[in-house]
Every structure is written in structure tokens, then in C-alpha cells.
Amino acid sequence: MKGYSFVHPRGDFVLPHADRTNGLYFPLANEAGYMAAITPTGGGDAKIDQNHFLLPPAAVVDLHNTRFTRTIWVRFDDGSCWSATGSSHEQKAAEPELHTVEAGLLWHKTIRKHAARPLTAEIVSFVPNDEVTAEVVRFTLRNTGASPLRVLPTAVVPLFGRSADSLRDHRHVTALLNRVEITSQGVLLQPSMSFDERGHSVNTTVYAVMGRRGDGSLPTGCFADLDSFIGEGGDLERPAVIYSPEHADAVRLSPGDVVEGSEALGAVQFDQVEIAPGAEIQLYCLAGVFAHTDGAARAAERYCNPAGFEAALAANREFWDAKLNTVSCTTGNSEFDAWMRWVSLQPILRRLYGCSFLPYHDYGRGGRGWRDLWQDCLALLLMEPDSVRESLLQNLAGVRFDGTNATIIGSRPGEFVADRNNITRVWMDHGAWPLMTIQLYIDQTGDSGFLFESQTYFSDPQWGRASRKLDATRGDTLLYDQTGGVVRGSVFEHLLLQQLSAFFHVGDHNSILLEGADWNDGLDMAADRGESVAFTGQYAANLAWLAGVLEQVSAEVTEIALHHEILQLLDRYAGTPVDYDDPAAKRARLQSFFDSCQQGPSGEMVNVAAVDLAADLRAKSDAMIDHLRNREWIQTPDGHGWFNGYYDNDGERVEGGGTDSPRMTLTGQVFQVLGGVADEQQVDRIVAAADAHLWDDAVGGYRLNTDFRELKLNMGRCFGFAYGHKENGAMFSHMAVMFANALYARGRSQAGWRTLEAIFNAASRFSASRMYPGIPEYFDPKGRGLYPYLTGSASWYLLTVVTRMFGVRGHYGDLVLDPQLQAAQWGELDSVSVCTYFRQRQLQIVYRNPEGLDVGEYRVTAVVADTGELAFTLRDGAAVIDGAAIDRVAMDCTGPEQAPTVLRVELGRRDNGAGV
């Protein structure tokens, strides 16, 4: 099947016959909190949170099964009826009509041609980028024939008007609360109460469907009762109101009418109208969630007219285009460049939707997960840096003093939840992500002072890495010391506690205990003896970075203030050393720390010399790296080698095996390569083993693991999934992209680009992927992309393209230019470029490669700004420009309206000494 085609560099695309693919959906949202999904046939849902759904909640299976869709019905003079979204029984039984989706950055258009009549319907939908929580729709009916057409149009939006919890529980009872009022513009649903058996409350929220003709005329009638609309024996694909004028006359509602106690919908009907040959009519509808009826009326006045609609649509396009211009690229492959616009949008969508509220994410109830939050910030640092500093600081308030953290971050600053499902557990990887994000922040900004900002700690009944329950809390989630004061610590102390707690929390094989799971949430059945060797490598790298940053700032910051109890975990510094090869001794030291501050720390602070603290942390990191290299490297009979990634709940090593039945995980390799645990020879052998055992062209590259052919109840639920799906052996984009990032970081750029390109090719191969532009969470065994839009892999893909492939990144605030672009990526172009933020300045880096050199053959020979040539030094083959020089030549800007500062970078042969 022919897929979509990009029709504009900003990412606009066209997809013919989109209605012939199941599972397609498109996001419609704004920053005010409206979150919707729309399918080619008007399906999907819309909401502002878990408890306020405008349309009935829709999981992905509902997209092709439900009749609850947005549509516009047309009744002709001869009594025949037609749906502009193909929703009628007759249309579904007949040959498919010509149908096309056109879409761009958060606007969506469908075009459908009547199979037998010269009538074309065009539906344009978007969400204004202001404070309105509503979607706006323009229906255009166009007569393409030589004779007039008389049509009676009716626009329909199904209404739900309550919490998603009511979809099954109390569906009928909550419908009894419905109160619908008809106004001159449409339908207003305001249930009398918010149903909650823990305590019902008066409802003030209004769900509205309103409309007007393009000439300003109002609806001639409305329908707001689902049962009356469809009639006895009818349904939403053959509603009696549309097919029977007599029935419509009997149930039509007028302004002032009220309907109570039934399932609602919003249907607005207009006068019959004649469309002249070659002419068209337009109808405008608004569907949204409002705090009061006046807000709905004002929004309808503003948007349901040609001028208001066009102005809002133009502003919407300009808004999203400008936001995505802040990080974009131009290469010799224009398809890749346009596709990257959608990948760049995805971290923003995660900020808006969280991990919930799109059809594949039907497990979500709102809020953002801890891991997701920190990884999304990676991309936002490159795109929206002005707000990230405060967000990072606020989110650290979710760290407990035992080194664990709340797992759900609410919509308000400082709002944290221990666990969405109220299960006492810890994900062992959570402590790793904040440091990785803050490292990027400091490298991109040079703001090392951020490490010494003060923040509170999170407290709840969970303590000792979920091994203990505290008796009570004070009714809030703040931690208090033993004198009653609120406990505060530096950002550095928060990060330090997370790494130290993990370092000592080891299993019998001296890797960090798996607990509830690590990044792979499917490894959730090895909480007793399971170990994550994979993330032990990342924690080793994190400890090394903490040591390094202390050495970096030691001239200005000679001492670090820490709570006294932490000295127990700084055993080398404190002179109470623990044998790092003795897991029991490490666990005992951690338990001693937990005992000492179970009722809160004492409040006593100590100043620790930065260089001495760095030495303690480096000793820990070195011990971990030495252990991993010497104890967890697997040599297989076929000559390959890789790292073991896990131990199961029986304490058995998970990976290994012979040539015929290898057991290998990609995760087990990524962090050892990325964090520098693997030596150079090991990196090459890992790549060879991954190519042999995990690579699969059909699914877009590296699978997450080989087929273990075992249920493995001693490891996790993922082994109950069919192989090739989700966390059991799918090409799981997130880890594959992190592997690409690691490969670039270790100088294996060809392998890194091969990985990124395979994902791009798989996602773009619509005949298999069946998805709109972007990167999915994973590809199934048939190559279908599942869970699009809301995936952390987008942040890592964007980060890898900008900081590794284009090589534009920071190092403690200095600009590093270290391109690893393949010669072919220039194509026929004279130059390639990337836009990104650095030090709160928007830069466009333009690389010229006049000799067509490949990676390894070229290096930076000159960097030129409008003000002249910039000096740089070479460090490990990369050009490094002092951050102060960037401040002098680039304008400080945090908004997308400012044009970027252009740096023109010449690439020449490595033996050319010019420009240094």
C-alpha cells in the first residue's frame, strides 16, 4: 500500500485511503490542557484529564469497532443519506470511497468524495493555541457537478461528560446525572454531580457542542438524547433523526429545551441548502470542555465563523512551526528531515499528554512517570530550555532521603504520588535518570551552580527502599528532621543519595538488586534475588560523573555541605571502609544508614572537602567497573562476547548460552557501552554479537532480546508476552536508540547511523508500519509501529541526532562540535545543518564538507560567525569553543521568534592544522 508523502519541509503530509488502515490516530492538543485523538473517520476521544472526558474514552481496539465518532451527515432530496466520515451502513457495505488525510503540525484534514454524487466533504480540525480547551472544526461541502445539490446537513459529536472510570462502572447511573440545555448555538451538557463514591460533589464543568453556518446562520434545531437520535432499532450508523424526517421533527429540540437523565450527544442541524455547481458551503463547529456556559458561548462566537477560524488556524500553524524550528535539521535526505519534525514534536506531546490519554496508552490515568519526566527533559533542554531549570529543581523534591523517589509527578508543582496503583515498590533504575538529565543541563548551560541549589525531600510511609513502613506522616509529603524542621539539601546531595543508595543495595553477585523492575518494567517478578547488571553499569558512570564535576568546580567550591548521616555511605572518606567485594557488608552498611534516619535525619550538617569526596566516589565507580568487566563478561563458544545483563529470582545468570540458543539482551549492553564500562575491544565484540543475535531488518533493527523460549516466572511478566512484542524481543525503539547513542559516543558512528536509519526506514515503510510520521514505542513482528507519539525514544532519537550525529553539544558550558555524519548524508547538498539551543541561545550549525570526506577522514578546520572566525581547540578530535565566545556572538533568546545565530563550520582533512 502506498504510504504518506511529505508535501512541505515543515512536515505536512498526505495519506490517500487512510480509512483503509485500522489503528491510525492523530493528536489534537494545546498547552491549555485539551487532549484529543482523531482517526481518519472521526473516531478517537477528547478530554482534559481522567475525570473530564468530552467524548467516550477510546482504547486502540475501539478505533475500528465503535460507532461513537465525530461526523457530519447529509440528507439529499431523494431521501438518501451520506456521512462525510464514511459512517453509514451503506458506505461501509459498498466499495470504498476516495478518502484522503492531509495533516500538519497539530492540524488534521480529511477529504471524502461521494461514490455516486458530485459531492466532496472536507473536514479541518485543530485546537487553538490559547486558553480554550476545545477543538474547532470546519466542514466544507463542495458541489463538483454541473447541477445544483440540495442537502440537509447535521453535525454530530458523541458526548460522555464524565470520568473514564464511568465507562464501565456506573455507566447508566452517571447518565442519570446528565442535564443538557439547548441554546441558540448548540448543546450544553452540565451533569448535576461529579460521581465519586468516596464523596460526590456538585459539578460545574460544561461540555459543549456548538455550531454556525459560514454565513452566520444558527442551527435550526438540535438533538441531545442519544436514544432519541438513533431511534428504536437504529444506531449511530443509521440514526433515525437522519434517515426519517418524521422522527427528526418529533424529537428536534429548540433553544430553552432541557433533556435530563439520558446518554447525551451534541448534534446541530442546519437548514436545507442548495449548493450551486462549483460552489461550496461551510459549517463551523466547536466541541470542548469549559468551566462555565459563558466560556463556551464566547468560544463559539470567536471561532465559529470564517474570519475567526482562519485566524486561529493560521496562528496554530505558526505556533507549532515556530516551536519545532528551534530544533530541526537539513540533510541530503529531505524525507528524513521532515520526519524528524514529528519526532521533535513527540517530547512536547509527552509533556502535554503524559504517558496517558492517547488510544494505545489506555493503561494511563494521567500524571507523568518519574523516568518519563527526566528523559523528556533531555529533548526539552534542546527545544524549550527557558523553563527546564525550574522544572528540574521542582522535580527533585520527589526524592526520598533513602535514595528512592515518588513515581508519579502531578500536574501542579510539588505534587508527587508514591505509586499510581498504591503498590509498595521501587524501580531500581529511577535514581539514574535525574543525574543523566542534569548532566546534560550543566553541559548545555555551564550552570554548575545549579548543583548547589536547595530543595526539600519527599516523604511518605515507604522507607528503606520499600523494605519498611513508617507509622505515620504529618499529613503532607515533606520530610522533617528530628527537631521538627523541614529537611533541605542541595541538588548535589539529592543526586548523591540516589547513587549511594543504589551502590550499596546489591544482590549476592554484587550488582544492584532489581527490586520492582528496572527500565524494562516487564522484569517485575524477581524482586527478591534479581539483579540488574545493566543498570549497575550506568550507576558506575554516574558516580564517576559526580566525582568529575566535583573536580571541575573544586577551585570555586572547596567544600560540600551534607547531612551528617550520609557519611556512613562515604566510607572511604569517613575512614570506615566497606569491602566492596562483599555484598553482605555493603547491604549492612546501607541498613545502618536507614536505621539512623528512619525518623528523619538529625539536622546536623557537615562540610566535606570536594576533592576528598570526589576520591571516595571515584573509588566506588572504579570498583563497579572492575567488577563488571571481570565478572559479568560472557565468552560464548561461537567466539562472540557480551555482558550479562541480569540475574533472576533464583539467583541464576540470565544471559549466555551456546550458538544454537543464545540468551542476550540489548539493555545489558547499552549501559556498559554508554557508561564506559566496556573497553574498546569489548565494544566491537558487543556490536558483532548484537548483529548476529539481535538484528532483524524486518522489524527495524536490534531486538530487545533473543527468544528465551521460557515463561520465566522468576524474572517477569514480559516473558509471558508473545515473542517479538513489547518488552519481549520487540524492536523496542527506546533501547535501540540508546544503543545508537552509545555507539556514537564510543566512535562507532557507522553502526550508530545504521541503527537510527533502520528505525527511520521501518517507521516510514507505511505498508508495514501503518502509522503516521514519527517513532513508535516498538514494531511488532510484522513491522507495525505500535504506541506512536508518547514514547521516550523520541527524546533519545532527537538527542542522538543533535548531540552525536551532528555532534553539537556542550561540555560544562563550552560548545563542542564533533560531527559524525556519514559522507552520504550530505547527498547533493553543499552543506547540512542543525538548529538547537545552547546556553539559552539558538544556534544554527552549518557544516560544509567540500571534499566529500567521510567520518574519520574529516575534522573541523574553521568556525565562522557573522562577527568573524571563532577560535577553538581540538580535544579528542572535536572542536571546543569557549562558552564565553558563544555568549559574545549569539543573542540571548529563549523564544522561537528570534532568528538563530549561524555558525558556519568548515570540515577538512584531519591532517590539516588550520583553524586551531
UniProtKB/TrEMBL annotation:
<dbReference type="InterPro" id="IPR052047">
    <property type="entry name" value="GH94_Enzymes"/>
</dbReference>
<keyword id="KW-0328">Glycosyltransferase</keyword>
<dbReference type="InterPro" id="IPR010383">
    <property type="entry name" value="Glyco_hydrolase_94_b-supersand"/>
</dbReference>
<dbReference type="InterPro" id="IPR012341">
    <property type="entry name" value="6hp_glycosidase-like_sf"/>
</dbReference>
<dbReference type="Pfam" id="PF06165">
    <property type="entry name" value="GH94_b-supersand"/>
</dbReference>
<dbReference type="Pfam" id="PF17167">
    <property type="entry name" value="Glyco_hydro_94"/>
</dbReference>
<feature type="domain" description="Glycosyl hydrolase 94 supersandwich">
    <location>
        <begin position="33"/>
        <end position="306"/>
    </location>
</feature>
<dbReference type="InterPro" id="IPR037018">
    <property type="entry name" value="GH65_N"/>
</dbReference>
<feature type="domain" description="Glycosyl hydrolase 94 catalytic">
    <location>
        <begin position="618"/>
        <end position="805"/>
    </location>
</feature>
<dbReference type="GO" id="GO:0005975">
    <property type="term" value="P:carbohydrate metabolic process"/>
</dbReference>
<keyword id="KW-0808">Transferase</keyword>
<dbReference type="GO" id="GO:0016757">
    <property type="term" value="F:glycosyltransferase activity"/>
</dbReference>
<dbReference type="GO" id="GO:0030246">
    <property type="term" value="F:carbohydrate binding"/>
</dbReference>
<dbReference type="InterPro" id="IPR011013">
    <property type="entry name" value="Gal_mutarotase_sf_dom"/>
</dbReference>
<dbReference type="InterPro" id="IPR033432">
    <property type="entry name" value="GH94_catalytic"/>
</dbReference>
<protein>
    <recommendedName>
        <fullName>Cellobiose phosphorylase</fullName>
    </recommendedName>
</protein>
<feature type="domain" description="Glycosyl hydrolase 94 catalytic">
    <location>
        <begin position="319"/>
        <end position="457"/>
    </location>
</feature>
<dbReference type="InterPro" id="IPR008928">
    <property type="entry name" value="6-hairpin_glycosidase_sf"/>
</dbReference>
